[in-house]
């Protein structure tokens, strides 16, 4: 079939690769360039942490995240270029003054594990347990949580590897070429057989319920820091994550800011993120700032993802919010089921909403 995909961010590239590999003629249109600088996927830490995220999201998203963790190794194995992937769990830390908030967080995780008994439970750590997992932290933290089996990947490497794969598969790539669903009439003479809209906030004009949620990420080169797994700091004002990538690169970010402002990062945000990171590991004092990135993630009113049918052969995939890398494989697999059969048993199992456009 001839297939058009709108948007070449994470979702668009994954879907295009899957369809092109299956032998379909794929054409992508994107408002930006091949570097995906305007994509929410570029400004992310790409942590795959369903249990950690259960503190702020619904059970269905956690289930999609579990599915994603199981699927990423196979998806990455299909790519010609290597992508950093790690599954050594998540470390949760807090300072003594934040014990009460940490207890609330722990209770939320315990409730998730009761609802999803197949999910590995959080393991409580004392000072020795923290030091055993991350020796460089020494005795700085007396308590923590370890969330086994959670992981991460390198989002920049993944976007580049997907682009390389699409070029090798012969997909037609149209950069700086914004298109809308209404520009196509699937099934008519001279038109594509299918259209998939994966534009994120680029679809807001046609999907007014979408809103932007600002994310901020600092990229550091910190060869003196020895953290080996994603680490989250519980804090009442600026909870952060620290995601170690390869070659001494770290991504440090805040969780979310309810704003669609795309202006550069403020001095206050920068100082708070860096101060929080320094409070976890003093080695960050000698780190070098490589980039300060701001971007808006596409979110719907309930912060849950949706696949919408706009017609018999038109699907919109949107609302990935802050969970893009964690849940993208689930959305990909559901979209492929809908493409092949018109229905999706996986969507039912994951409680993923499939809507008609008038919904």
State the helical fraction. 25-40%
Oligomer: single chain
CATH topology of the domain at 2-49 and 155-206 and 301-356: FAD/NAD(P)-binding domain
Distance between the ends: 28 Å
Structure characterization notes:
- The chain is α/β, with parallel strands linked by helices and 359 residues long.
- It has nine helices and 18 strands.
- It has helices at residues 10-21, 50-53, 59-77, 99-115, 127-133, 155-169, 267-280, 324-341, 345-350, and strands spanning 2-6, 25-29, 47-48, 85-86, 90-94, 123-126, 143-147, 151-153, 172-174, 194-197, 211-221, 231-234, 240-244, 249-254, 288-299, 306-311, 314-318, 353-356.
- The radius of gyration is 20 Å and the shape is globular.
- The mean pLDDT is 94.
Topology:
Elements: E1 2-6, H1 10-21, E2 25-29, E3 47-48, H2 50-53, H3 59-77, E4 85-86, E5 90-94, H4 99-115, E6 123-126, H5 127-133, E7 143-147, E8 151-153, H6 155-169, E9 172-174, E10 194-197, E11 211-221, E12 231-234, E13 240-244, E14 249-254, H7 267-280, E15 288-299, E16 306-311, E17 314-318, H8 324-341, H9 345-350, E18 353-356
Parallel strand pairs: 1-2, 1-10, 2-9, 5-12, 10-17, 16-18
Antiparallel strand pairs: 3-8, 4-8, 5-7, 6-7, 11-14, 11-15, 12-13, 13-14, 16-17
Helix pairs in contact: 1-6, 1-8, 3-8
Short description:
The chain has 359 residues and is an alpha/beta fold. The chain has helices at residues 10-21, 50-53, 59-77, 99-115, 127-133, 155-169, 267-280, 324-341, 345-350; strands at 2-6, 25-29, 47-48, 85-86, 90-94, 123-126, 143-147, 151-153, 172-174, 194-197, 211-221, 231-234, 240-244, 249-254, 288-299, 306-311, 314-318, 353-356.
């Amino acid at each position: 079939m001839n297939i058009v995909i709108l948007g070449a961010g994470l979702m668009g590239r994954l879907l295009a690769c899957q369809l092109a590999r299956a032998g379909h003629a794929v054409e992508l249109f994107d408002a930006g360039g091949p570097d995906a600088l305007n994509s929410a996927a570029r400004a992310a830490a790409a942590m795959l942490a369903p249990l950690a995220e259960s503190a702020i999201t619904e059970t269905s998203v956690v289930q999609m995240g579990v599915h994603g963790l199981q699927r990423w190794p196979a998806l990455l194995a299909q790519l010609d270029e290597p992508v950093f992937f790690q599954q050594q769990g998540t470390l949760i830390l807090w300072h003594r003054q934040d014990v009460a908030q940490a207890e609330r967080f722990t209770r939320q995780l315990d409730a998730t594990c009761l609802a999803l008994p197949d999910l590995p439970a959080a393991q409580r750590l004392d000072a020795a347990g923290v030091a055993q997992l991350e020796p460089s932290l020494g005795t700085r933290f007396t308590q923590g949580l370890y969330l086994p089996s959670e992981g991460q990947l390198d989002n920049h490497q993944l976007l580049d590897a997907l682009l390389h794969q699409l070029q090798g598969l012969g997909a037609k790539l149209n950069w700086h070429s914004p298109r809308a669903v209404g520009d196509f009439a699937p099934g008519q003479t001279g038109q594509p057989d299918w259209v998939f809209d994966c534009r994120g906030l680029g679809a807001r004009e046609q999907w007014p319920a979408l809103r932007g949620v600002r994310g901020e990420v600092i990229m550091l080169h910190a060869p003196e820091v020895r953290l080996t797994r994603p680490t989250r700091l519980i804090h009442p004002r600026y909870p952060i994550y620290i995601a170690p990538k390869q070659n001494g690169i770290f991504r440090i970010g805040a969780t979310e800011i309810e704003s669609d402002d795309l202006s550069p990062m403020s001095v206050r945000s920068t100082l708070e993120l860096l101060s929080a990171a320094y409070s976890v590991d003093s080695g960050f004092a000698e780190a070098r700032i490589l980039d300060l990135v701001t971007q808006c993630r596409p979110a719907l009113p309930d912060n849950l993802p949706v696949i919408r049918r706009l017609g018999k052969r038109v699907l919109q995939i949107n609302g990935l919010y802050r969970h893009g890398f964690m849940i993208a494989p689930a959305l990909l697999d559901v979209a492929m089921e809908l493409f092949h059969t018109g229905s999706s048993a996986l969507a039912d199992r994951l409680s993923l909403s499939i809507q008609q456009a008038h919904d």
